[in-house]
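Need tokens for this chain, all 279 residues.
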Amino acid sequence: MENILSIDLESWAHFRAVVLRDKSLRTSLDRKRYDNGCLPSAGDHLLNLLDKYHQKATFFIVAEVYDWYPESINEIQKRGHEVGFHTYDHTLVCNRKILEDQLQKSSNFLNRFHPIGFRAPHIFITSDSLACLKEHGFIYSSSTYDDGQKRTINGIEEIPVSASPWRRGHDGRADLPQALNFRLLSRKIPFGNGGFIALFGSKISYFIDSFNRRGLPAVLFIHPWQLYAHKKVRRVCLELELLVRNPFYLLYPKNILTHFEKLLKRYQFTSFQEYFYGH
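Here are the structure tokens for all 279 residues:
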């Protein structure tokens, strides 16, 4: 059966600005200078890799990246992938007001692509934010961790990133928001998270097969910089920074290109739009 692949298309600068609270990356110009053309390069490699294995995906795009590199984002759509929305500058969506501001800043991107899908940064979203998405014409979100069954919250279909409960028969559903934290990890394994793909490697197939046997698609996401590192990333130094500031993200610096290519060889992937909405 088909599974769902999504790409959170953001710069390494966005990761540093939020996760490591890098104060030198406060403005869009600061972040673009830091990126220094790395994201379009990584994006091209990723698109070619997907073409090689005849795979489709949903790209949840940080809208300021479209302001930086419009042709790169146009190319994603041109190659037949779904374009989704991932906020304007990767700000954590803690409430409706923040999301409204992000939507307003993203008008160029939204008017160009009219996305129907949204993913909240760090898989953190509130119920009132989902209601806001509905009012702005979105159909679905993928901003929680759970099994492959979608549910409707405030008019939006929430399609979770795949997570497997530790105990069979344990529902594991929780109220919003659902962040990557100790509470989540005590109840389930969020194997669809790109960091856990780095942790399990090829053994991630165990979880995908388990979902597929139950007739459920596995929903996975990765970042381009997990495959093609930013020029300024020194992995040992980065791991030390993460250990001190945000240990939940220690898995992200590991390169997963080999593991990812094995998944592309073994499984058939498609976008949210193709799988659930047939177009």
